[in-house]
Structure prediction request, 973 residues.
Amino acid sequence: MKTLLSLTVNGEARDVVVAAHKTLLEVLREDLALTGTKHGCELGECGTCTVLVDGEPVLSCLALPIECQGRRIETIEGMADSGRLHPLQQAFAELGAAQCGYCTPGILVTAKALLEETPVPTRDEVRRALAGNLCRCTGYTKILDAVELAALRMHGGGAGVGAGERAEGARP
Amino acid sequence: MSKRFSVVGHSLPKIDAWAKVTGETKYADDLVLPRMAYGKLLRSPHPHARIVRIDTARAAALPGVYAVITGRDLPRVKFGILPVSQDEEALCVDKVRMVGDPVAAVAAIDEETAERATELIEVEYAPLPALMSIEDALARPDVRIHEYGDGPNVHKAVALQFGDVDAAFAGSDLVREDVFFFEGNTHLPLEQHAAVAHWGPDGKLTLWSSTQTPHYVHRLLGKILDMPQAHIRVIAAPVGGGFGGKLDPFAHEIAACKLSQVTGRPVKIALTREEVFYVHRGRHPVLMWVKTGFRKDGAITGMHFRTWLDGGAYGSYGVASTFYTGALQTVTYKIPVYKFEGARVFTNKPPCGPKRGHGTPQPRFALECQLDKAAEQLGLDPADMRRRNLAEPFTKTANHLTVTTIGLGECIDRVVEASGWSRKWKALPPGKGIGIACSSYLTGAGTAIYWNDMPHSGVVVRADRSGGVSILCGATDIGQGSDSVLAYLVAEVLGIEPKDIRVHVADTDLTPVDLGSYSSRVTLMAGNAVIQAAERLRAKIFEAVARKLEVAPERLVARDRRVFVADDEDKSVTFQAAVVLGESLHGVLAYPGSYAPPKRAGKYKGGGVGPSPCYSYSACVVEVDVDEQTGEVKPTEIWIAHDVGRALNPLLVEGQVEGSVYMGLGEVLMEEQVFRKGVHKIPSMLEYKSPTTLETPEIHTILVESDDPDGPFGAKEAGQGPLLPVIPAVANAVWSAVGVRVDEIPITPDKVLKGLELRRHGKTPRVGPERLPLFTFPEPRPVESAFGQPAEDIAVRPFAS
Prediction:
């Protein structure tokens, strides 16, 4: 039994005809070809599939798209604005916060939601916000650094101390 | 340091960072081909059973199903990653040896239909007794999991002896015997394995897979599918986390290939998280007995090490793993005489294999905890004791390994100073503790997994009139940044920016062979090969530019995207113009680089496991809080110093060190792959615990540079070694906090509480294995200890010129 769904994804209206039991993760990846959102556990434990729905982090492997109609769905593909990277993306690239990169989309959107709620979070606040996103590569250190650097650049009037000096992302 | 170099030593972003932060990176499961079918494997629910009958008729009749295959549709040949352990089948025919063993595969119009079809396959099993532990496996010689090996259910038994350890013990001031157990755990990469196969109408096969070793998969597919390797192309997609878990050829890859052939369609098989737990190849559970002699000053007089490995259902890398549990003990401290005995047994569990540190974290845990106990008995500061007994640079070890540079002394000094060790050791309040441990690790295995005289790593660097440079190399980036390292090295040699370079990797049709991303080999081996190729290209370009500028080529320098005369910088051409001159003079500019390690394998059976061009060194101090009410161990701060030879990119090296520390913390405190009644207890991320941001403390990383002559620009490994000392450092810190020795990994709250209770009752506050299996190791063939002999002046390295 298939259903016609009208979704708003990354600001675009998208109509899909899908089986009603398909998860938001499946619809994003398989029906809308937005493969930037990853699957890690199918149980809502690893945070890899996180997307934003009305600005809130949601585990897309546990969400049904039918409940997301009329709401704003945002994936990693919608994070850069017309080719301009979000400061979080820039900081993650510069500071080596993405190693294998598989958990990165979920962490980036979760961090974006954090910074919209708490523009300059403490390190503990960043830790708590990202506690539901597993990363097996980085030991989290560079991820925490990158969120702090992005927050400083967005709201703290310039680059973070140390981290900003280290980053040589602007090389030609 | 960074003044000498324009790229090396700088904290640059990875070249693939931009794709990764935008979600553009295409992992294997992101690939979709026209007409693609979706595959599923049916797996055994029994740990050990004979297969009586498989009936696929109902599954094949389900609408939307394209094909159903069993092992009888594949060539009847067993395979395995090591030539000595050919014991696997992609789809089991006569017998299953673990829960999760695949028995049939389906291709269908979508994943759901494929899954429904697997449920319609009827398999009749005749269950056999399940052997779920080392003791079980040795106690039941009548129940054989495999028909080969060094005894009933014994996959491999080895014994090596280098000098007379008994004489050394007789002349010691203190001799300790300790027993330890290290429970198995798994890699848990965030990406589940996936593969897409396309058997084209021309009869040629292409496989895209999340693999760390496209070369070994390529090599084995020829045998498994009984077709010429020349007709197979394997492409490694970017890997979403490997840690050693994607280093074997797997059933889903093989089934996808066969299903593609029989359906005439591309076929994708993506594993579920539960299936990844069955694929495993993770950390071996290892039981260890260690006898070590000490002098009063803490110097080691000799060591005798025994290991029993629980190998699981198949061989995998297990023979190498077995030797690795005895290979690297000698590389850190002076051990004049050494004896090692090891045995790997088969059990009805998912096969163990190479997880980060491959076979060495378990003995490192045992060795470093025993040193701590000895220091306590001898009244020595454990940091001092280690510092005073370091191995000598540029010498050989008892077991004939050649060590080159050793930055461990500086590593110890730096963590001792940064952590305030001298202030804190034996001075922290009850419940708080501090511990130290050290380690060393390979920078690339010195021998391939199959003996041959060819390069371990091959590269082609090409440039053309556009000014663009491309690198072709078989290496696989698994997130560690190896693609970027290749670009940095070529940029350094050619005087251009990493952005000017495109890196094409891991495609057996297009890229020269590299053995794979394992044993911390890529930076050193592919790095040296790419430097050789880039220098050859630069020499050709310089020759042409020298003619144009009418100077000797030796006077030319390449930097800042220009080629210029060293002492007359105005005499210059742009890099692009230089390439045009080169292409005009020489024709196509494409030059190879090859690397094979120095031939240093010890001349004894087993001497091929352990040699490496050079070894990295790490020292780690951990501070913990231990809650005496709950038994919970909480690391509060970690200092780690790592001798990386040279940090080609400090940012990436720190990332490798921090990731290693994190993974070590998971292993020491919570991660375990455990079973109940033949069934995996926790095949999900919900129950298999791993550290989150909240369990990972601040990590202070210190990089030490010892500039190794065998490394590219002096670099050694960083991706595995720093995991090793974390585990014993935590164990030693727990002892320091509450006076309890937990000689068994992981150190879970129940074990700490048990130790505290023993202490309260005045008993020895030790928790760990109490007995050893009855087992007779083979008689070792004694070999003289090579301890202290100088390293050869010039190591023979093939393809060096």
User: Anything to note?
Assistant: Chain B has a mean pLDDT of 97. Residues 431 and 738 of chain B are 6 Å apart (CA to CA). The first strand of chain B starts at residue 37 and ends at 43. Chain B touches chain A through 61 residues (CB under 8 Å).
